[in-house]
């Protein structure tokens, strides 16, 4: 490859502001740049990264495809500078290469993450800057969302990603068709893992549910891993509800139910054993598939499920009994001794799950009714907050419905649907007429 020709072409097209032509040229040169890694440094030095941003981005993308990268300080600094300096005109034709850089960068940083270097955390502000450039509104999902979530999860640094995860996504960026289904699945899967790490279980459950129920023609490994965590989290969040509550929503693709359940039988058996309300049955299943849970790195969640079954069983005792001894509580819920039962009850009382009084003299537990009258200012603020969020959500749904009904795709689908119905009606009338008034296919 003639370096002078590449340099002169990039400089000329940039000066002429022929960014569409420059983008096409750089796409054609991608394979050549990747095959000449040793010359990329001198090629980059021949350009001005304040002016020839698109050309410099192409060089960075080619450099990140190499396996032998040791100058991370330089690459991260240059990438951050390019993402800062790129103009809006150049950005319009650089979405694809920016997405490619974020994907390659996050993958390389996670791969080379070590005990002595925290490379993942250093890539977070770079990818975050690219995300901000590609977004037109906060509720828009872009491909770098998944890359940012992956880096934050690897670095165990969640301050940058949690505010983004809390925003309801109502729009997906097309980004010149560079956004794919895998980016969406990975964003919600990584997001669920992050919420899981900070113990926000309900939000984690929602993110895994979105991963599993996304419209699809085939299941993926990402969906399978999300489904495993979805089943366990459902027990942690809704363990005191009937088993039917754990079923996937009705809009879930039939393919998901057909293929995921057989692949996750070790987890579906946990759900079945959990609702038998027997600690022995549950522990038998866990011991049977312990190697599976450990290889999936879900053994921590599984252990929490065991604890959740105990608390669910104790909570269930508050309905038929007013007073019960600690010995009876321990035997009914499968705990080793009355001391363990007392410890669990005190912890549940501290969390507000139950209301009870323990007598140290005779070892009896009295289950009390909920003393909350729901008339405090805190409860009023809580209700107002829920009402405000519901009103905001209703407005969002109404706005989305309006956008869909006036969109070209929706109108085109409606017109084609009506034409198809009309054709079916005409063909049906024709069949009836030709059959002498009898129903088609019916003979006396």
Briefly say what this structure is:
This protein has helices spanning 3-15, 19-34, 40-45, 53-64, 72-85, 88-91, 95-111, 119-134, 144-155, 162-165, 181-197, 201-213, 221-238, 254-263, 265-274, 279-288, 290-295, 299-317, 326-333, 338-351, 377-405, 408-434; strands at 140-141, 171-172, 323-325, 356-359, 364-367. The protein is mostly helical. Among the domains are: 180-317, no CATH class; 318-370, Orthogonal Bundle (Arc Repressor Mutant, subunit A), CATH 1.10.10.10.
The radius of gyration over CA amounts to 29 Å
Q: What value does the average pLDDT take?
A: 86
User: Low-confidence parts lasting 5 or more residues at pLDDT below 50?
Assistant: 431-444
Q: Structural class per helix/strand content?
A: mainly alpha
End-to-end distance, in Å? 81 Å
Largest sheet, if any? 3 strands, antiparallel
Number of strands: 5
Number of helices: 22
| SSE pattern, N- to C-terminal | HHHHHHHHEHHEHHHHHHHHEHHEEHH
Helix amount: 55-70%
Explained architecture:
By secondary structure, the protein is mainly α. Among the domains are: 180-317, no CATH class; 318-370, Winged helix-like DNA-binding domain superfamily/Winged helix DNA-binding domain (Arc Repressor Mutant, subunit A, Orthogonal Bundle), CATH 1.10.10. The chain has helices spanning 3-15, 19-34, 40-45, 53-64, 72-85, 88-91, 95-111, 119-134, 144-155, 162-165, 181-197, 201-213, 221-238, 254-263, 265-274, 279-288, 290-295, 299-317, 326-333, 338-351, 377-405, 408-434, and strands at 140-141, 171-172, 323-325, 356-359, 364-367. The strands form two sheets. A three-stranded antiparallel β-sheet has the order 3-5-4. Helix 7 packs parallel to helix 9 (144-155) and helix 12 (201-213) packs antiparallel against helix 13 (221-238). It starts with a helix and ends in a 10-residue tail after the last helix. Mean pLDDT is 86; it is low at 431-444.
């Amino acid at each position: 490859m003639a370096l002078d020709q590449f340099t002169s072409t990039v400089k000329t097209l940039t000066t002429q502001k022929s960014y569409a032509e420059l983008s096409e040229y750089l796409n054609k040169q991608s394979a050549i740049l990747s095959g000449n890694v040793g010359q990329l440094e001198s090629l980059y030095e021949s350009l001005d990264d304040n002016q020839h941003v698109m050309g410099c981005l192409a060089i960075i993308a080619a450099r990140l495809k190499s396996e032998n990268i040791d100058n991370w300080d330089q690459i991260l600094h240059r990438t951050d500078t390019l993402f800062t300096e790129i103009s809006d005109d150049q950005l319009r034709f650089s979405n694809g290469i920016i997405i490619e850089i974020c994907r390659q960068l996050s993958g390389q940083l996670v791969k080379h993450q070590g005990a002595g270097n925290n490379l993942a955390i250093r890539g977070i502000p770079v990818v975050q800057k690219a995300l901000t450039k590609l977004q037109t509104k906060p509720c828009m999902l872009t491909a770098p969302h998944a890359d940012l979530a992956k880096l934050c999860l690897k670095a165990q640094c969640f301050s940058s990603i949690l505010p983004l995860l809390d925003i309801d996504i109502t729009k997906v960026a097309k980004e010149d068709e560079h956004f794919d289904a895998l980016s969406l699945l990975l964003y919600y899967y990584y997001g669920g893992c992050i919420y899981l790490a900070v113990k926000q279980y309900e939000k984690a459950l929602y993110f895994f549910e979105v991963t599993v129920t996304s419209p699809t023609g085939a299941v993926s490994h990402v969906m399978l891993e999300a489904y495993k965590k979805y089943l366990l989290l459902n027990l942690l969040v809704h363990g005191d509800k009937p088993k039917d509550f754990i079923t996937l929503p009705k809009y879930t693709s039939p393919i998901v139910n057909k293929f995921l359940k057989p692949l996750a039988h070790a987890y579906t058996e946990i759900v079945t054993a959990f609702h038998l309300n027997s600690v022995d049955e549950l522990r038998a299943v866990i011991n049977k598939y312990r190697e599976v849970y450990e290889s999936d790195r879900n053994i921590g969640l599984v252990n929490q499920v065991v604890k959740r079954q105990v608390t669910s069983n104790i909570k269930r005792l508050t309905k038929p009994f007013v007073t019960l001894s600690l010995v009876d509580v321990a035997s009914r819920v499968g705990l080793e001794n009355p001391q363990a039962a007392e410890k669990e009850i005190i912890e549940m009382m501290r969390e507000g799950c139950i209301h009870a009084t323990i007598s140290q003299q005779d070892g009896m537990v009295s289950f009390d009714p909920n003393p909350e009258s729901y008339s405090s200012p805190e409860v009023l603020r809580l209700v107002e907050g829920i009402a405000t969020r519901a009103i905001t959500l209703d407005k969002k749904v109404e706005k989305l419905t309006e956008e869909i009904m006036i969109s070209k795709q929706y109108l085109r689908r409606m017109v084609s649907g009506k034409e198809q119905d009309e054709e079916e009606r005409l063909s049906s009338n024709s069949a009836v007429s030709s059959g002498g008034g009898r129903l088609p296919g019916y003979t006396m």
